[in-house]
Write a structure and sequence with these properties.
By secondary structure, the chain is α/β, with parallel strands linked by helices. The chain has helices at 51-58, 98-108, 113-126, 142-155, 172-189, 200-206, 240-262; strands spanning 4-15, 25-36, 40-44, 66-71, 74-75, 83-86, 160-164, 193-197, 209-213, 220-225. It has a domain at 4-82 and 158-262: P-loop containing nucleotide triphosphate hydrolases (Rossmann fold). It contains seven helices and ten strands. Bound molecules: adenosine-5'-triphosphate and magnesium ion.
């Protein structure tokens, strides 16, 4: 059986009231989820349903009110090198070149210079940035910056990659290019990935499995396997299997948004 990399059990998050007039805010409720080794899991849900809160708790950047997060069967609390995070903002060091940005984590781990240069080179090639080793972040487009951020995180060889809307700031075409790149990388490197988005196309294009979340307080509404054979690229966006799945998820999210608007 496939090994379970990440396990989240009965997770709840309440943001306590700030002052007398506010009420406590239930952000997440009864969240149970698993990501198996080499699996690409996507969580999709409406804005404000608690997606970032969840991934930040898994990444150890925030505490859960209740419940547990385990990596390889060990419960985690704070952040750790076992989890590599990629956010919508590129969070590169502006004064470091592409190469040095990618080497940064390895340098912190005291990997010798020659070795870290070799590792950085591998990931530069993987994300298609050969020739830009000496460029500074300000000289790069958004898509290229996100390639650097992905390469930097992969170079640290985390047990799991946690990605929170990493392509959210990109234009539609660049976004698809980056989705195809990530689909290819994940299949080549067999990385374990938990990816968060509110974009249904993106979710289906990338995922082996999709967790659909409800509106706030975020719960897991449905778990769906994506069984679309062959390469994951833009061509599948119009296949009948893809569209059938898209319709199903759209209807669920539509209902959630309508309930939210009517405050049911
Ligand atoms: N530090 C905080 N203190 C109080 N409330 C917070 C805090 N962080 C998030 N929230 C609230 O928790 C809820 C979930 O927020 P979160 O950012 O996790 O949603 P999201 O699903 O990532 O939304 P989006 O799709 O817009 O990124 C929101 O109602 C938000 O206002
Ligand atoms: Mg968010």
């Amino acid at each position: 059986m496939d090994k379970i990399k990440l396990k989240v059990t009965n997770l709840q998050k309440v943001f306590p009231a700030n002052g007398r007039k506010e009420k406590d805010l239930d952000a997440l409720k009864d969240i149970n989820l698993e990501v198996k080794e080499s699996e690409f899991v996507v969580m999709v849900g409406p804005s404000g349903c608690g997606k970032s809160t969840l991934i930040n708790i898994i990444g150890g950047l925030a505490d859960a009110t209740e419940g547990s997060v385990e990596i390889d069967g060990r419960e985690v609390s704070g952040p750790g090198a076992d989890r590599g995070m990629v956010f919508q903002g590129y969070s590169l060091f502006p004064w470091l070149t592409v190469q040095k940005n990618i080497e940064f984590g390895l340098k912190m781990k005291k990997v010798p210079k020659a070795e870290r240069e070799k590792i950085a080179q591998e990931y530069i090639q993987l994300v298609g940035l050969s020739g830009f080793e000496n460029a500074l972040p300000k000289q790069l487009s958004g898509g290229m910056k996100q390639r650097v951020a992905i390469a930097r995180t992969l170079a640290n060889q985390p047990e799991i990659l946690l990605m929170d809307e990493p392509f959210g700031a990109l234009d539609a075409q660049t976004r698809v290019v980056m989705q195809e790149l990530l689909a290819k990388i994940s299949r080549e490197t067999k990385n374990t990935i938990l990816f968060i988005t509110h974009d249904i196309d993106e979710a289906i294009l990338l995922a082996d499995r999709i967790y659909v979340m409800s509106r706030r307080p975020g719960t897991i509404r449905e778990v769906m396997e994506v069984n679309i054979p062959g390469e994951r690229n833009h061509e599948i966006l119009v296949t009948p299997e893809f569209l059938a799945m898209k319709r199903k998820i759209m209807e669920m999210l539509w209902q959630e948004s309508q309930d939210a608007a009517l405050d049911k």
